[in-house]
Protein: GDP-Man:Man(3)GlcNAc(2)-PP-Dol alpha-1,2-mannosyltransferase
Organism: Nicrophorus vespilloides
Amino acid sequence: MKEIISFMFETFLTLKMLLVLFLCILTILTIVVPAMLVLLRLKYCIYKAKANPKKLKVAFFHPYCNALGGGEKVLWVAIQTLQKRYPTAEISVFTGDVEATPSEILQRVASNLNVKVDPKVKIVYLHKRSGLEAARYPILTLLGQALGSICLAFEALGQLNPDIFIDTTGFSFTLLVFKVIAGCKTASYVHYPTITTDMIEKVSSRRSMYNNRSYIAKSPFLTYGKLVYYRMFAAAYSFAGQFCDLTMVNSTFTMEHLTVLWNKPMHLIYPPCDVSHLVKLPKDEAKKANIRILSLSQFRPEKDHPLQLQALYELRELIPDQLFANVTLVMCGGCRNEDDKKLVKDLVDLSKHLSLENNVEFKVNISYQDLLKELEYAQIGIHTMIDEHFGISVVEQLAAGLMTVAHRSGGPLLDIIETSEGSRLGFLAVTPLEYAHTLKTILEMEEVAIMGIRERARASVDRFSTKKFEAEILRAVEPLFQY
Ligand SMILES: *[C@@H]1O[C@H](CO)[C@@H](O)[C@H](O)[C@H]1NC(C)=O
Ligand SMILES: *[C@@H]1O[C@H](CO)[C@@H](O)[C@H](O)[C@H]1NC(C)=O
Ligand SMILES: *[C@@H]1O[C@H](CO)[C@@H](O)[C@H](O)[C@H]1NC(C)=O
Ligand SMILES: *[C@@H]1O[C@H](CO)[C@@H](O)[C@H](O)[C@H]1NC(C)=O
């Protein structure tokens, strides 16, 4: 009896402890955290009220603004456009490139990206960028980077509290900070969703691709843990997305995946992609005896060059030998390292194995001048990568007036190549045989039909021009600039 009573007493004690703990957590969640948020918000809003209210402040969040890739082109062209349209606004960029001076950055932007930004743009340096590096988080990388970006957002906010905050790198958790605490209007240009439902599906089907560690894919328990983690992260990402006043995406692929998670309207604005010089390349209208099929992509496994050789192999069965003797597949592309060189060697071997060595040319590390010549001489373009997110090389081939056959997936399918009769811009295929039949169709096409497609395709690439990007971005941000 005594034991039972003492047991009950102890249970009661533990229960009481649990209750106290529960109440503590509840207090923190319902009182302390909101109170801190309110205080922080008051602090930053008072700061903002004190600042010159006439001058509209716009800040871009782009920690790696000096990297000069496609993402940076979007950033700097957007800045240039806003500078022209809103000359009195004060535009800043938050960046972690502390080793470069503002004039160095602008100089590189002018010389490498060919974008001339007004030097009155302010560069605001951030020192905690290392928190964004994936390598710092051997496990829970997504979460680590998200928290790192929140810390960085606080560092940024400590230096400048803008009226409009625009994230151009996809660190969407920064929006939360700038919306909730700093009271800014927020916008985001998303190149790629941080997490997609595809990723979650891949984990749940236990393929060891995203799960880079195969032991996770092998253990049902760890897989389940990872799945819960991904689901929770996806929920947090959707939550952060709700603090975005204006969402812009770079492609249909990104739009489709992000819409599932954020569930809000988005503007599809293609990145600026300058192909106007290709549209002007002369194109000999008369059919040439030599038929050149141009392949234009880096020598990398995912580009699937072997498929091009297989297609050529199938084509030989479909057309007369004399005609096939005049067909040349020209593979142009860059090589970055030893692996890529090995890939080229394997391709050469494969072409010999298929007895195609007289019908294939390799142009490794071709110069831009020579590439322009190839684009001019070729009649047909070929692209074989599956699920390419966009495919700039496909746009270049269309612009240069080639009859283009691209893989029926990803960007070429969703964004670039229209194939319905009457508005056809190019062709899509999947299997070697389908590629071969398509090539045969093109070889047999009437001159007028070819010219029709060429004209339409060359006109269509205007969708991806810098001018179009500028117009679209101004239209999208307009509501944010209205006070
Ligand atoms: C959008 O961004 C992703 C990631 O950087 C890139 O792979 C894709 O090519 C981009 N799309 C366009 C239309 O440039
Ligand atoms: C898996 O790991 C390898 C080597 O560590 C890396 O090269 C590859 O990019 C990783 N793949 C993914 C999907 O993260
Ligand atoms: C192949 O090219 C040669 C000239 O290079 C030309 O004389 C011949 O007619 C071409 N053959 C076919 C079938 O087009
Ligand atoms: C191509 O250029 C890369 C670097 O620019 C270099 O490493 C590689 O060796 C070159 N490949 C060939 C085949 O010249």
